[in-house]
Specification:
single chain; about 425 residues; alpha+beta; 13 helices; 11 strands; about 60% helix
């Protein structure tokens, strides 16, 4: 009799399981009950023994029917759980993709608004911090640039590495390891080894995530993340984000490089005449709104044309390059320096009156004169050059840059006529008055 019970049970229970998976959880129980009743009828017809007359047959039928109903219900629940898991995974994948797309759109908008800023890197520092916090809950984000041929890490918001206390070696600690190898560090990644985790734990601020910004085969920056307080992010998503930040970084660097090539004179490295005039007008207007004076100085390289007449074009360019770089090292970052023509440089000084501007101009003139004299002496050209300077200040008024430039050029001519190195409007008020008329 056992064979009469078991043989029809197997196909019925399999059918109940498959049917429950197909029709869904709401109707699977009823399907299981119908399959169980169908199996009981088949057994009764086959055995021809009433189940109420045989206790063992009744027990077998009860257990088999319960198994059929239970399997149908379990099969439907398993399918529902699997489908929910797939939906969650798809939703998670779509959310990560949407997050990446939104971040790219944000960067495009940010770049368009900041591409003409004088120094967009401080703003980019904030953009990186905000982006990492928004997309993966990153906290204590610290972006660094690598300066001094890869030896020093400097906070991105700093223009130059002039803060010894804020400079970090790019060859020490976990950030040095990431910078030198280019491999990202994840605190929860056991595959990185105990030594790397020990190196991270020895840092004053152990990072949860640290990645390098690469250009070709070398690192140009490092981003350290102290914590990830948002939802759990997959390793693949974090890797996508650090590559995306690297692309943003490289794009900004190329924009700055392109703008520099357009705005800067390729020989001297300072602003071209048109770029200088545009920038100086903006600076002067800003200073006047704040009630601050400005001064403009014109430096002339007398005798420079003699080098061109002697076909010493390389030497002429070298002199111009030396003068431009020497002045760049001395003027403040918020001043403006440009090359006006072949032999004249012009610098706009912020927040200084004519008297202070005259002292600054004397220092610049003496420094440039000494540098040019040493260069010509070392090369043995036999050509003598001299630097003269004219300085005009805004005084109590608000003259435009074009007016100050005209006064400074006139004062340069006065310096040559009187054989002086520097002449300013406060030292030669008569000449300055004549220039104004």
């Amino acid at each position: 009799m056992i064979m009469d019970v078991m043989l029809p049970w197997f196909p019925v229970v399999v059918g109940a399981g498959i049917g429950g998976r197909l029709i869904g959880q709401s109707r699977a129980t009823w399907l299981g009950i119908m399959c169980a009743l169908y199996w009981v009828v088949i057994v009764q017809v086959t055995t021809r023994t009433p189940f109420w007359a045989d206790a063992s047959l009744f027990s077998a039928l009860l257990a088999g029917a319960a198994a059929i109903v239970g399997l149908a219900d379990w099969s439907s629940r398993a399918r529902a759980g699997h489908r929910k898991g797939l939906e969650n995974r798809d939703d998670h994948g779509l959310s990560e993709t949407a997050c990446v797309s939104h971040t790219i759109t944000q960067f495009d908008g940010w770049l368009e608004s900041k591409r003409n800023d004088e120094d967009p890197w401080a703003s980019f520092d904030e953009f990186v911090r905000r982006t990492l916090h928004d997309v993966c809950g990153a906290t204590h984000v610290r972006p660094f640039r690598i300066l001094a041929e890869g030896d020093v890490l400097v906070p991105m918001r700093m223009a130059v590495g002039d803060g010894e206390g804020q400079s970090i070696s790019s060859r020490a600690g976990i950030m040095g390891h990431v910078a030198m190898t280019g491999n990202s560090y994840y605190a929860d990644d056991a595959s990185q080894g105990d030594l790397v985790r020990r190196l991270a734990n020895e840092s004053s601020m152990p990072p949860q995530w640290c990645f390098a910004i690469r250009r070709g085969g070398r690192s140009i920056g490092v981003v350290s993340v102290g914590g990830l307080s948002g939802e759990d992010c997959s390793r693949t998503f974090l890797r996508t984000i650090d590559l995306l930040v690297g692309q943003f970084w490289g794009t900004l660097a190329e924009v700055c490089r392109s703008r520099m090539a357009t705005d800067c004179d390729h020989v001297s490295g300072v602003l071209t005449r048109d770029s200088f005039m545009t920038a100086s007008r903006q600076v002067a207007a800003s200073c006047y709104r704040s009630g601050e004076p400005v001064a403009l100085a014109v430096l002339v390289i007398e005798g420079h044309r003699r080098l061109l007449d002697l076909h010493l074009w390389d030497m002429a360019n070298e002199v111009v390059r030396l003068v431009g770089q020497s002045m760049l090292e001395r003027v403040r970052p918020d001043d403006r320096l440009g090359r006006f023509d072949d032999s004249r440089f012009v610098v706009l000084l912020r927040r200084v009156d004519s008297a202070l501007a005259t002292l600054i101009a004397r220092q610049l003139t003496e420094m440039v004169n000494d540098a040019v004299s040493r260069l010509l002496s070392d090369r043995g050209t036999g050509v003598a050059l001299r630097i003269r300077c004219g300085v005009a200040g805004s005084g109590a008024g608000e003259p435009n840059v074009d007016s100050l430039l005209g006064q400074s050029v006139a004062l340069c001519h006065a310096a040559r006529e009187k054989d002086l190195s520097v002449v300013s409007d406060v030292e030669l008020s008569g000449v300055a008055q004549e220039a104004r008329t």
